[in-house]
Structures are given as structure tokens and as C-alpha cells.
Design brief:
75 residues; mainly alpha; 0% strand; elongated
């Protein structure tokens, strides 16, 4: 992904993380609370098989739609 698009996706991840603060279910793996920003980035990596930075620009809209999905369906 180009640096410009990568910055746009990262800003979108930050916005999604802001929306998820305090909304993710508790986890025994995270006794101090879950990091919603890391959660979104890790979910993107698991879904697409690579970090958002490594994806081609053509998949940017798909990544952003998935981030919207994560905000709507906290897990």
C-alpha cells in the first residue's frame, strides 16, 4: 500500500479504536483491559493474511469496510 493510503487506513483504525474503547468483551488474557486499536489491527491482519500496510491499494476499500464491520460487531 502506498504511504498515503497506509496513513488513511491507520487513521481509520484509530477512529475505530476510539469507538471501541470500553466496548470489547473482557478477556482473561488481558486483565488490565483490551487495547481496541491493537484489536482492530490484529483482526485486519488475520482476515487478510497480512498487515494493512502490506496489502495492495486495490484492497483499501475492502479493509475499511471490514473495519466498519468490526466496530458494529465487537468481539
Amino acid at each position: 500500500m502506498t504511504p498515503e493510503n497506509s496513513k488513511k487506513v491507520w487513521a481509520y483504525i484509530q477512529e475505530a479504536g476510539d469507538k471501541l474503547v470500553g466496548k470489547l468483551p473482557e478477556s482473561h488474557r488481558h486483565p488490565s483491559g483490551r487495547n481496541p486499536y491493537a484489536h482492530v489491527a490484529i483482526c485486519v491482519k488475520h482476515k487478510f493474511g497480512q498487515s494493512y500496510k502490506e496489502l495492495p491499494d486495490e484492497r483499501m476499500d475492502e479493509v475499511m469496510e471490514y473495519i466498519d464491520y468490526l466496530v458494529e460487531n465487537q468481539s
